[in-house]
Amino acid sequence: MAINNRPKIIDIISPKEIWQGPAGAPVKLVEFGDYESEDCAKAHEVVKKLLNAYGDQLKFNFRHFPLTQIHQRAHKAAEAAVGAVQAGKFWEMHDTLFRNRKHLGQVSLKEYSREVGISDKHFLTRLIDSFYGWTVRADLMDGLALGVRDVPCFFINDQLYTGRPSFDGLSKAIDEALQTKRKTPAKQNA
C-alpha cells in the first residue's frame, strides 16, 4: 500500500475577494495601497467616511501595492493582512495596520494579530516564511497591469480615478458613477 506523502494544499483567500459594503452596491471602489504610506493612511480615513456616507450604494475593496523601495515593511504588513483574510479578520487588521503604520515589524504584526482576534498558531511562522508573499505579489502585478504606479490609486467601477483622493473629489466621481448606473439598464448577472 502506497503512502501519500504529498503536503496538504491550503487554499489562500485573495484580498480581491474581500469587499466591505453590500454585494449588490451599484458602485465599486477599489484602492491599491501601502500600509506604510501616509497618503494611504489619509485615504483610509476618506474611504471610511465614503462608506458611511454612501451606505448601500458603495462597496470597497483594498488591494496591496507595497512600495518596497520606500517602505521596507509594507510587504510584510500586506502579508499579515492576507493572513488575517484567512481568519475572517481582514478589515480589523487593515484598520490596525494603518493605525500603527510606523510600527510594522514582525513581532508587532504578531501582536496586532492577537489584538484583532486571530488565533492561528501558525500566523507568525507563516509571516516569517513569506507564506502569503505570492498573494501580495499577485495584487501588485494586477495593479501594474492596470497602470498603477503610485499609491493610493483608486478605481471606480473599473475606471481609473485620476483626481486627488479627497472626500469631495471621490464623492463627485462616485456620484457620477451612480448617475451612469441609473441611466444604463442593469446588465444581467452584473
Structure commentary:
With 190 residues, the chain is α+β, with helices and mostly antiparallel strands. It has one domain (22-181): Glutaredoxin. It contains seven helices and four strands. The protein has helices spanning 38-54, 74-86, 90-99, 106-115, 123-128, 133-146, 167-183, and strands spanning 27-33, 58-64, 153-156, 159-161. Strands 2-1-3-4 form a four-stranded mixed sheet, with helices on both faces.
Rg, alpha carbons: 18 Å
CATH architecture title: 3-Layer(aba) Sandwich
- For the secondary structure, the number of strands is 4
Roughly how many Å apart are the termini? 50 Å
Number of helices: 7
| Basic shape | globular
Low-confidence sequence ranges: none
Query: Quick one: CATH superfamily?
Result: Glutaredoxin
Fold-level CATH name: Glutaredoxin
Spatial ordering of strands, largest sheet? 2-1-3-4
Q: What's the helical proportion of residues?
A: 40-55%
Report the biggest beta sheet as strand number plus sense, adding barrel if it closes: 4 strands, mixed
- The CATH class turns out to be Alpha Beta
**Fraction in beta strands:** 5-15%
| Arithmetic mean pLDDT | 92
Please trace the helix and strand order, writing H or E for each element. Answer: EHEHHHHHEEH
Structural class computed from helices and strand pairing: alpha+beta
